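FAQ

Q: What does a record look like?
A: Structure on top, sequence underneath. For example:
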């Protein structure tokens, strides 16, 4: 190991390897507006941008799937049974009633009450329920309260999935649970530390624990990181196989995501080398080779698709107009015209114009 590399490893060991982050939450509940306001006030506008409004109609369906009456007897179910018109939903509230032979089957759920929800107003329709003398039981009130909260408030699961996980793009999951390792130079670490006191207010507790150099951690972190890199490379390889088999051009967002992945994986490998002294030249070479392969596939698909489109273009021998085309389009059309060294007679002049435009 060269002197510079030895010094980097030594500095990494002295400063500690990074942190372990894990969390717990209970009773977490906040409206999207309140969460965005809290994050913006703390200067975390980018994180606030991740918070989306709740789709109330989707939240209602979730409430129907997950609700049970929170009394002594929890054998209750809710089910959307019909709609009075395009905007109304009748929701049946059913209680399980044992059959005489003790068998527990679906047919033994007996409707006890019903509530009506209006998808246009995104509210429960009190006028219809009052007219039909339904929705008056304690179970109905509990269901409507439960559903309304899901339609208006975000819970701990949302915060974990939409706010916390996106910050762990360069993190390594340690073990099989929800504990993640982040290096000290990870860009997300400062954001996570800023989130700690804010989220604690709403019942979402983030634990950020410093890892000091010592026996055990080096190997555990390195092995977990290497496993993660190899696993993500396998997924990327499968994705690229799909690109090759497809007749379509690779979508720009898929290409961008793949590039971010390669950059992230290389950064992880460099971190393990720098701070833990592991030599990962072969792994970094694999990352680089796969990144080049991805670029070749993307460029190849663009050319094939452009040439296929070029064959359908009605060309005009207008040098000025052709000169304004993007270079890739000029080259693609030229390739299509010159395919098999044959140029259609009616495109001869256009081909000459393209040749001039190509210089």
């Amino acid at each position: 190991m060269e002197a510079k590399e030895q010094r980097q490893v030594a500095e990494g060991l002295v400063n500690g390897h990074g942190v372990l982050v894990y969390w717990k939450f209970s009773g977490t509940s906040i409206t999207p507006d309140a969460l965005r306001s809290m994050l913006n006030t703390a200067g975390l506008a980018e994180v606030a941008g991740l918070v989306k409004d709740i789709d109330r109609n989707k939240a209602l369906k979730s409430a129907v799937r997950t609700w049970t009456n929170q009394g002594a007897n929890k054998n209750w179910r809710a089910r959307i049974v019909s709609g009075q018109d395009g905007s109304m939903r009748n929701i049946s509230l059913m209680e399980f009633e044992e059959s005489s032979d003790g068998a527990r089957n679906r047919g033994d759920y007996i409707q006890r009450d019903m509530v009506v929800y209006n998808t246009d107003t995104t509210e429960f329709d009190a006028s219809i329920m009052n007219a039909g003398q339904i929705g008056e039981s304690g179970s109905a009130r509990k269901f409507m309260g439960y559903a309304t909260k899901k339609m208006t408030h975000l819970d701990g699961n949302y915060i974990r999935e939409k706010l916390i996980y996106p910050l762990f793009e360069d993190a390594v999951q340690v073990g099989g649970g929800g504990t993640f390792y982040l290096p000290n130079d990870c860009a997300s670490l400062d954001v996570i530390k800023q989130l700690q006191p804010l989220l604690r207010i709403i019942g979402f507790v983030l634990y950020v624990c410093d890892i000091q150099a010592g026996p055990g951690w080096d190997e555990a972190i390195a092995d977990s990181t290497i496993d993660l890199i190899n696993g993500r490379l396998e997924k990327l390889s499968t994705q690229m196989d799909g690109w090759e088999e497809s007749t379509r051009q690779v979508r720009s967002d898929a290409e961008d995501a793949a590039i971010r992945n390669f950059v992230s994986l290389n950064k992880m490998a460099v971190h393990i080398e720098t701070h833990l002294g592991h030599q990962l030249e072969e792994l970094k070479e694999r990352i680089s080779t796969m990144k080049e392969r991805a670029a070749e596939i993307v460029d190849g698909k663009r050319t094939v698709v452009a040439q296929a489109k070029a064959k359908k273009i009605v060309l005009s021998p207008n040098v000025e107009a052709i000169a304004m085309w993007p270079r890739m389009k000029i080259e693609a059309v030229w390739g299509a015209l010159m395919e098999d060294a044959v140029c259609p007679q009616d495109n001869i002049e256009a081909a000459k114009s393209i040749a001039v435009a190509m210089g």
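Q: Is there anything notable about this one?
A: The two ends are 51 Å apart (CA to CA).
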